[in-house]
Protein: RNA helicase
Organism: Lactuca saligna
Amino acid sequence: MTDKDPSFLFSGITFNRKRFSSDFARFKEKKEINDSEGTLPENKSPEVEVAAKPAKKRKRKSSVSDPVEGFNVFKSSKTEPVLEENEESENASEGKKELYRQMERDAIFRKQHNIHTSGSNIPSPLHDFSELRSRYKCKPYILRNLAELGIKEPTPIQMQAIPLLLSGRECFACAPTGSGKTLAFVCPMLMKLKHASKDGVRAVILLPTRELASQTARECKKLAKGKKFYIRLMTKQLANTGEFSKLPCDILISTPLRLKSAVNKRKLDLSRVEYLVLDESDKLFDLGLLKPVDAIVKACSNPSIIRSLFSATLPDTVEELARTIMHDAVRVIIGRKNSASESIKQKLVFVGSEEGKLMALRQTFEESLNPPVLVFVQNKERAKDLYKELRFGDIRVDVIHSDLSQEQRENAIDNFRAGKTWVLIATDVIARGMDFKGVNCVVNYDFPDSSSAYIHRIGRSGRAGRSGEAVTFYTEADIRYLKNIANVMKASGCEVPEWILSLPKLKWKKHRPKREFLSTKPHDEEEEE
Ligand SMILES: Nc1ncnc2c1ncn2[C@@H]1O[C@H](COP(=O)(O)OP(=O)(O)OP(=O)(O)O)[C@@H](O)[C@H]1O
């Protein structure tokens, strides 16, 4: 990400409604923002709260001046409730005290759950899902679906991101792999959309790969079960032939290139989009995708759009960019920024040279093969080569890479999910976001090309509170880059040899050395295939 010009990305917004969000918030639906359980209303600064008057003591003069969000919008109006001077100041000071007490309770709760926030007027975190109903009047179908999915307690990212998005705030959030970020944006999106409509696309979720888009569409539908929303996945066919003007669509889930192509070729109108989520946002801001993403952000020209960015890794460059272009956005970090999930046991294994890798892999499998296992390699050629090596053994192995057809890719994923495949060899195409619940081990056969690639790859295991294991092979040539991985390991509580930590600091450019594939088969056997 080199282009930091704020006018490049997220430009095209003519009327800056977000900038004045606190003013606008006052005119938003009172029922969504007020906390019916008696906790403080959302979205208010201490200054605002000073003007608050506890409901019980308020003397009403007229119903026209009903307070909005705990304070009176028309403060100078003649219809303002009249209070005795002393009573007013007493109430104001009680209101202020209660605000500070609530802020203190929120701070303690956030600390307990490792939630770090920055920004102004941040709504109280959600303690449990029942608050969706009491605070935000969530429809029963969502709570029913959560229960059916076995989702009982919100995860820390859900605790904070859900109230933020429900309060109409923009946010950029960084939370570990497998910590439930999808639900953190899908749940408030369904709640805010309320019901199906035929008024054009209302929400867009952008993701970097087709597999991830299709997984997210499935998750959306699961949470929307029982409610007739139009949730659509942008398939190749839809992008090329869709009659979008006639196609009802509440939520559109797509990769950037397909969506941009639909906007250009099929005149898909995104001007009514109210919610835009960039999931795996740092990947979307990679140079290859930046232009189409920028075009889509511009096409989503609704001035009151709410944008949010989610990822398990949020490099400073992306964060700086987000900071300059989003309006009054709140930053949410769960745990330490750019760190691996703590439920993964991580190990480094020295394999000497490329020659040693295959032996080390076979040995690992012989000693303890605990399927399902994911094996990551550097590119599709290496994926094909490793597959050739392993496919005739006793292990049920399959491969996934970008040279396969969409159908083949989907089959590989389905078979792995269903347990028919024990070991799936993969390139980074599925390193991000894919939710294979029970992956026991990730093997980095080839050293990852960046620390964020490492975090995402190993994050395919140890999800939703489960434990997992990650083994990373390294050769002599990889030693220079070891320290960056070792730092990630150490930060998530794994033991790392001291000599690695004392290696010189190296600015990591993408580490993708040319790797020679070394077969263990006799040459004539190789040629037959
Ligand atoms: N509150 C919850 N309680 C239990 N399980 C949950 C909860 N929220 C989500 N999950 C489950 O956790 C798994 C991981 O969620 P999800 O895929 O959203 O993770 P993520 O944070 O987006 O990970 P990644 O960074 O790898 O994309 C999913 O199977 C999801 O159903």
Summary: The first strand starts at residue 115 and ends at 118.
